[in-house]
Amino acid sequence: MAIKDKLSGNEAIAVAMRQIDPDVVAAFPITPSTEVPQYFSQFVANGQVHTEFVAVESEHSAMSACIGAEAAGARTMTATSSQGLALMWEMLYIAASLRLPIVMSVINRALSGPINIHNDHSDSMGARDSGWIQLYCENNQEAYDNLIQAIRIAEHKDVQLPVMVCYDGFITSHAVENIELLEDEKVKAFIGEYKPEHYLLDRDNPISMGPLDMPAYYFEHKRAQAEAMKNAKKVILEVAQEFEKLTGRKYGYFEEYRMEDAEVALVIMNSTAGTAKFVVNQLREQGIKAGLIKMRVFRPFPFEELGKALSHVKAVAIMDKAESFSTAGGPLFTEVRSAMLDYARDTRAISYIYGLGGRDVRTDEILSVYNDLLEIIRTGQIKSTFNYLGVRE
Amino acid sequence: MAYNLKTLTQKEERITGGHRMCAGCGAPIVVRTVLRALKPEDHAVVGVATGCLEVSTCLYPYTAWKDSFIHSAFENAAATVSGAEAAYRAMAKVGKVKGTTKFIAFGGDGGTYDIGFQALSGAMERGHDMVYVCYDNEAYMNTGIQRSSSTPKYADTTTSPAGSEIPGKVQFKKDLTMIMVSHNIPYVAQSAPFRNLKDLYEKAEKAIYTPGPAFLNVLAPCPRGWRYNTPQLMEIVRLAIETCVWPLYEVVEGKFILNYKPKNKLPVVEYLKPQARFRHLFTKENEGLIEEIQKEVDRRWNRLLELCGEA
After folding, report:
1. In chain B, positions 111-130, which contact chain A (CB-CB < 8 Å)?
2. Nearest to A203 among B43, B82, B90 (CB)
3. Between B45, B59, B86, which is nearest A52 by CB?
4. What are the residues whose beta carbons fall under 8 Å from the beta carbon of B61, sequence distance 6 or more?
5. Residue A147 banded pLDDT, cuts 50, 70, 90
6. What ipTM goes with this model?
7. What structural domains does chain B harbor?
8. Per-residue pLDDT for B311 more than 90?
């Protein structure tokens, strides 16, 4: 029997971490992720976990300590946001290239400057090419579910890559919502015991990690890393199927919401998907064939699946809560449109950058995007490919 | 048991020959001596900061390290090893490790005094059972002899070059050992590969087997950066000690102990002379600079004598 509760996103993540009971958690406070190590260190103080909690002096050291711990053979977790993730940057690539299955919650927050503690996706979007698997979450339930699945995905022998579980700062991290939790023993059974193949504390088989890698080998190592990311695509679905058996909750690369016959659609991430679903329902009541795709897996990128999912749509708006300053749309737009070139060539696509620095995204604004798409279908003309939503010009 | 280098060198080496460190470099001697202090039955996890030592001892697909080794980046050897040590404690709780493993981090002065200083301070403050060893060659040697906060005053480096207006580095060397003493950790020592290596070996043994964090600052001359003839390595170290430029001392649970007091304290000029990085100090226009160095060496030495109760 699932446990019904009311928790904020950060509480849900901390509960999941208690149930996972990792060997090491190394973390540093930063808004809005601070609560995660805060709740978790209380579990440590109360002896509810066997974890060594390392209260490091910076996020750079948080990720470095996670690397040392995971390399030593420990199941290792952390959490961060924004500047914290930025300070980890160097180590993110090293964690991935050392093939260390660290699992980190990223509580999405705008990057400085100017300094801003509120939500957008500029932090994790910037880390999209660091070699980490990225899972995105609409609400506290998905954050909880994804964190538990992340352990299995990361540690799978064909993957062995770190995973970021990303959810929206304040909107998801601090808002209390209903949630269904698994029993502790079910989580324990689902994740299983961590048995790394090679690790520093295996004294019978000492290992050197992190060598200088010259041109004769470096490329092959990066190629192998890319192959692991490819393998993750399969593993993510396998783990999701197993999780569905356990919970009844279905996960894939993305969620298709009322997409069966949709003519206009958004591609969107995290909490704004909830707002947009409300608008889709309103439009459907008016007989407008609206739908949306909510990304769950951004790395690896579901190129073919996403492209195909958009093939029958007439016009799509790709919504980025991050600016890339390319002047040609945000990072999600660029990648989705690239997939569409192969699989949805007839679908018209436009880009919106929205909600930066925690700017509220209202239903009437989402509605205006659908109206723009309907206008494109009506006229056959795209007035503007690259757009901003809800900003004073 | 009395120290005997001949007997101790019979112990199996934990870093193999064939690594690519330069002839006449102090660092591999420091590493070998420190690792020799491990009990043969103990396993070690060694973490190394990016630098000469790392790039010369672990080039894929080779490694010179017989224990478990990890390099991740430049500024974080202390943090990386602290994570491994935390893993050991957690895994020991659930019976997942066997035997004793010791944790040792090595970094050059760049990776320790400068870019890795925060990670070092954090790891020591948190009380991990580990040893951090700085092999101090007084500049960023791996990238080509750039000044660090450890570079001594008036040394000629590629980013503090001796020119017609500025005679080399304008600041005195940071006193990192004293800063680490201020962390109030169980064991801090300053050492060097001196004579039969007794001082370094015994300090390494204490550092490794004292529970909690320990810091060793070890002078490790660099023939490329200091510009001495490679066979002169041990002589350069001897002169650093006999001139009191690099005193040998340890601080055990806050108590200062002077390990060597020269019978005849030599003038610093004896130490500066064989090193071409100080060559410009012997020109007419730079007269008086050596005297300034001498004054600072004397000031720091006298203060140390006071702290050690030897004044």
Report:
1. 118-119, 121-123, 125-126
2. B43
3. B86
4. A211, A217
5. very high
6. 0.97
7. 5-307 (3.40.50.970)
8. no
